[in-house]
Every structure is written in C-alpha cells, then in structure tokens.
Amino acid sequence: MRYFCIVFSMVVITAPLASGENSASSELNQFPSLIAGIRISGPLDFCGELVQLDNPEIRERFDKELLLTIWDRPQVILWIKRSPRYLPLIQQMLKQNDMPDDLKYISIVESALRPHAGSRKGAIGFWQFMESTGRKYGLKIDSEKDERRNVHKSTQAAIAYFKDLYDKLGSWTLAAAAYNMGELGLQSEILAQKTKNFYQLYLPLETQRYIFRIHSAKLILSTPEKFGFRYQKEDLYLPLEFDRIKIECFQETPLQIVAQAAGTHFKVIKDLNPEIRGHYLAAGSHSILIPKGAAGEFQTNFKQLVDQWLAQKEERVYVVKEGDNLSTIAERFNVPLPALIIWNRLEKRNNIYPGDRLVIYSDEIGANEDN
C-alpha cells in the first residue's frame, strides 16, 4: 500500500513595500481577522424578518456560512465586479413590483450572476429555474431559446414565483426556503413539525444552509470593506448598455446577419442575448438586444443583408446524390463537417437522401456540380 504525504506551507510576507507603492493596495495589511469579521452583533434581517443571533445554534449556523463565503474570496470578488452589470436592473424590477430589495441576493447565491450557470439537476440561468417551473411562469424553453438565461425575462418570472410563495407561506424567509427545496416539500415539513419558524425547522441540509448563504451575501455586499474587499470604481464591470430592436424573420435567419447589421460580432449578440440557442433565429418576431447606438441603421442594414444572404443561398445549393453522406460531401467541397451541419440546421445523426438540398458556402460548389 502506498502512502502519500501532502505538506502545506504558508509564506508570510513581511518585507516592506517597494518605494512609491501605495500601502493601501496591500491586501496583507487590509485583510481583517476572520474572527473579527464574523463578530456580527446584529440586527440581521432578510426582507425585514429578523434573525435571532442570540440563539447559539442559529449563531453557529450563520458563522459557518459567513466564514465559508468570506474564505472564497475570488468568488466574492466576482460577485462585486458583476454587481453593477445586473443588480441595478434586478433592483429596479423588484421596486416596480413592490417586492423586497433583499430578494436580489438570491440571484447571487443561485448563479453568481452568470446567465449560463447550471446545476446537476437541470436548473439554468440567473435564478436557476427548472424547466417545468420556468414554463409555468411564462419562460420560453425550447430548442431555439431558453429564457432562463435572459435576465429581464427570468427576473420577471422569479418575481411572480416569489409573490405566489409569499402568498402561500406568509414569510419571505419561508418563500426563499421553498424556492430552494420546493413549496410542497416545505409545506409538508411545516405540517409535520408544527412550526412555521424557518430557523426551528429541520429541513434538507442544503436548504438549512441556503438562507444563511443569502444572509452572508447580503452582509458582505452591503459592507465589503468590513471583510477586506476594497475596490475602486474602475475595478467593476461596466453596466449593461444596449439598444432593443424588433426583428421580423420570415424564415430561419443566421444570427451572424444580426451581428453584421449591428456592426458587431456574433459573440457580442450571443452575450447580449444569452437565451438564444445555436446560430439561427427562428421564423417569427424577436426582441433583440444590440450594442448601444447601433439601432439607427440597423433595420436598413438587416434588410439588405438578408436579401444578399437569400440570393447567395440560392447559388450555394447542392442536391444530394445517391451514395452521398455528410462526411463525403464535406470532404468533396473542402469544408468542415460541423460547418455543413450548422449551415443546414442538421444533427450529426441526421440522415440525408437523394434529392435533398444542402446549402454549402464553398467556392468549389460550382465546379463540383458541373462534374
């Protein structure tokens, strides 16, 4: 049997700062004691509902989550840096719907403000909606779009869900717990244990921790300096800035055309519209975000580019022959197989048949078709 010994070492830097270096930039000098950092005297609340920090058991649970959160400094730094990009929008939507501002911290705990965040259970997006719940609250989730990744649509759905949960449970803390574990499961435990006090309920361990993680996020982001997170305005990511435009697509249209019409790149359009899946917009009406200032000439550019694409598409059609398959066709026209699949909205396992028409953007298609 082999034994492995892992040795951890800690280097303590005691050398003075280089000449001219601002000592305020030294994290070593600014990082507070962890013990001092969690010495919270209160009051502590979530949506106005107080936490009994004088209860030793509750204090211990809170200390644990706060310590774990503080220790994960890279994650907290990313929370802070992303906050100006998304939190103002979430705050505004909560205020417009007369909802508690503290609910915004749930999006941080759920996804760290990442549109493509996903869980092993299948939850996706800023608010980590499961498919069934997302659809129940009006989100489009299919092969073309997944609006769980759209901060506007998913926040509106979350607001509606929280309203329903609060109406059923009468407590924002219980509503948050139900958001994590499911309302039926929580209601069953309330009936079985004969208490509606979240802090006295024995719930799945993830849910028991969940509320304290929200408290920790609120506390740290409300007073970051207390926990050693000092930053300047230029350290933060820029807020979302965009123009919203309406597009009418009479057939599936490449998203690249939208990017060209907006004078930007495919990636920029995908980043502004993370709910769009794949490389195409489905036929129909779409509300799309494009870079700020690009709306003025967009519709004119878009129409011209669509017309050009349709004309070019007709010149790039290959009619499938007996014995063809996708791999041999890609090889014949010297194009990557994945590109052929993207151009024609295919799957790798799709069968093709003689007489099918494939679009191939290759200068070799005319010469090959003549042979």
Quick overview:
It is built from 16 helices and 8 strands. With 371 residues, it is mostly helical.
Keywords:
single chain, 371 residues, mainly alpha, Lysozyme, Membrane-bound Lytic Murein Transglycosylase D, Chain A, 3 domains, two-stranded antiparallel ribbon, 16 helices, 8 strands, 8% strand, elongated, disordered N terminus
Characterise the protein shown here.
By secondary structure, the protein is mainly alpha-helical. The protein has 3 domains: 47-235, Lysozyme (Orthogonal Bundle); 242-314, no CATH class; 316-370, LysM domain (Membrane-bound Lytic Murein Transglycosylase D, Chain A, Roll), CATH 3.10.350. It contains 16 helices and 8 strands. Strands 1-2 form a two-stranded antiparallel sheet. β1 (45-46) and β2 form a beta hairpin. α8 (172-181) packs across α10 and α11 (255-261) packs across α13 (298-315). It is elongated and about 80 Å long.
Give the oligomeric state. Answer: single chain
Q: Largest sheet at a glance?
A: 2 strands, antiparallel
Number of strands: 8
Fraction of residues in helix: 40-55%
Mean pLDDT: 87
Which segments are poorly predicted (pLDDT under 50) over 5 or more consecutive residues? 1-21
What Rg do the Cα atoms give?
A: 27 Å
Taken together, the total number of domains comes to 3
Sequence-ordered SSE layout with sheet pairings:
Blueprint: H1 27-30, H2 34-37, E1 45-46, E2 49-50, H3 56-71, H4 73-96, H5 104-111, H6 131-136, H7 151-169, H8 172-181, H9 183-193, H10 205-222, E3 242-249, E4 253-254, H11 255-261, H12 266-272, E5 280-281, E6 284-291, H13 298-315, E7 317-319, H14 326-332, H15 337-343, E8 357-359, H16 365-370
Antiparallel strand pairs: 1-2, 3-6, 4-5, 7-8
Helix pairs in contact: 3-10, 4-7, 5-10, 7-8, 8-9, 8-10, 11-12, 11-13
